[in-house]
Design brief:
The complex is a heterodimer. By secondary structure, chain A is mostly helical. Chain A is 76% helix and 0% strand. Chain B is mainly α. Chain B is built from four helices and no strands. The N terminus of chain B is likely disordered. Classes of the chains: A mainly alpha, B mainly alpha.
Chain lengths: 519, 107
Amino acid sequence: MAPAAPAVQTLIGQSNPVAIGFFLVFVLLTLAITYWAAKRTRTTKEFYAAGRSVTGFQNGLALAGDFMSAASFLGIAGLVSLKGFDGLIYSVGWLVGWPVVLFLIAEPLRNLGKYTFADVVAYRLSPRPVRTASSLGAIVTVLFYLIAQMVGAGTLVKLLFGLPYELAVVAVGALMIAYVLFGGMLATTWVQIIKAVLLLGGATVLVLLVLVRFHFSYNALFGAAIAKYGGTFMQPGGLVSNPLDAISLGLALMFGTAGLPHILMRFYTVPNAKEARKSVFYATGFIGYFYILTFTIGFGAAVLVGQDLIKGIDKGGNMAAPLLAEVLGGSVFLGFLSAVAFATILAVVAGLTLAGASALSHDIYVGVIKRGAASEKDEVKVARGATIALGVLAVLLGILFKGQNVAFMVGLAFAIAASANFPTLLLAIFWKRFTTRGAVAGILTGLILAIVLIVISPTVWVDILKKPAAPFPLKNPGLFSMAGGFLAAVIGSLTSREKSAEEMFAGQKLRSYVGVGAE
Amino acid sequence: MPQPQTREPASLAELLESPEFHAITARKNKVSLMLTLAILAVYFGFIFLIAFRKDLVGANLTANVTWGIPMGLGVIAAAWVLTGIYVVWANSRYDVMVENLRKKWGK
C-alpha cells in the first residue's frame, strides 16, 4: 500500500457485499436466460448456431461481448494510467483486425460453412486430415486464450470480491459450463449481449463522471495529467522501441482476429451473409468506442487516483479502473463495476468453451471419427460432453497456472490464430490450387512456429524462464510464424495436385459470392 | 433455396462463365483488397511514425495535446469509416449485382 495515499480509502481486496450482490443479480438473470434457451436448444443448428436466429445488430453486440475481455478493460485502462500515450498505441492494435474480418472473411465464411471454420477449409479438400489439423489449430488457440482468462479471473475476483482464487476459478468454470451445456449458443449469445451492454454502459458512466470533473474538456484532463506527470506522458515512450517487434505484434493482432475460432463461430448465428456483414460493422463501432472509453478512464485514473496508489494495489495497473470507480462513485459503483468485470470474464470463457467443444464434436467426432455420418442426436450429445470436459480442463489449468505469468498467452493465441488458422482459411476461400497437403502443412507449420518461437523469445525465455539472453529476438512471433504458415501452405499446395478441389472451386465461388446453396 | 446440383450442369457452367458472375467476383475482390490495404496502411503508418518519427508524434498540437492523440484516434476512426464504406458499398451495389444475377439465372 502506498503510505502517502491521502483521502482514498479503498475497499479493493476486501470482501465486497455490494459487488457480490450485483454479481448474484447477473447470475440469476443469465441462469434464467439459460433456462429459457435450454428449451430452444435441441438440434445441432440450435446448439452451435442459436438456430441462425440472431440479428446483425445483436450479433454485433455479442461479437463485442465475445472480444472485450476483462484483461483489455482493466489491463488497457491500467496501462494508460501508468504509461499515458503508449497505452493508446497498444489499444488501437486490438481494433484493426475487425475491418480485415469484414473485408476478407465474414461473408465467405458464413456462406460456405455450417458451424466451424474447418467447414470452410475442408469444403473442397479431403475432410479427415483437414478437419484434424484445423481443429487442432482451433483447440490450441482456444486453450491458450482460456488459460489466460481463467488465471485472470481468479486473480481479479480475489482482488475485487475478496474471494479465494480457487473458489473464483471454480465458480467461473461452473457457470460457463451451465450456460453452454444447457443453453448452447443461444444462452452464450445473450450472456455476451448483456455483458457488452453492461460493460459499455458502466464504462460510459465512469467516463462521464471523469469528464464532469473537467467540465467536459479533454484539454483540461490532459492538462491535469501533464501537470502531474510531465509532458512525456502525452508522448510515445518505450512501447515501440524496436520497430520489428511492433510490426510482429501488429500482424498477429491484425490477422489473428480473423482466425479466432470463437469469433468466427459467431457468424453462423445470423441468417445470412448480409447480416454477418452488418454485425462486423456494429462490432467495430462498439469495440472502437470501448477503447476510447478505456483510454479516457486511464487518464482519469492517473489524475484522480494517482499512479502511486494504482501501483500500490497492483503493479500491472489492473486496478486503475475499479479504483477510479470507487473514487468517483463510492462503494456502490465499485461493486457494480467489479460485477461487470466478472460478467465480462464469463461471457468470454463461455464463447471460448463453445468454440472448443464444436471443434471436438463437429470436426473431430463427426468429421474425422464418424466420417461425416453421425446422427443429430449423437452430435449434440458429444458436443455437450466436450463442453463438460473442456470446462473441467479449464478449471484445472486455471488452478495449475495460479500465480504464473500468463499474460503472454493471449498474444500467443493471436499469433497461432494469425499463423495457422487465418492463412489456411484465406487460401481455402480464394485460391483454386490450394490442396489438402497445403492446408495441413500450413496449419502445422504456423502452429509449431508460433509456439516454439514464443518459448525462445524474450517473453518466455527471459521473463518467465529467467534465462539470460533469448535465442529469438522478437517478443511476439507473428511476423515469422505467419510468413511460415503461408509459405508452408503454398509450398504444400504446389507440390501436390488435387483435381477434384480445382473442379469444385467454381461452385465454391458461386456459393461464396452469391450465397447459392448456403445454409 | 434451390441447390446448385438440381440445376442442369450446362446452365450452371454457363452461369459460372458468364460476364455478370465474373464482374461480381472481380469487383468484390478489388474492393476487399483495396480496403484491406487501406487499413494496413493506416495502422502500420501509425506504427512506423511512432517507430521512426517519435518527435513528430510527440510534438504539441495545442498546449496539452500532442499530435499522437488525433493520430491514434484517427486509426480508430479509420476502422469505422472503412467498415462503413464497405457496408454501404455492399448493401447498395454488391447486393444489387447479386440479386440481378440470381433473377437472371433463376437462383
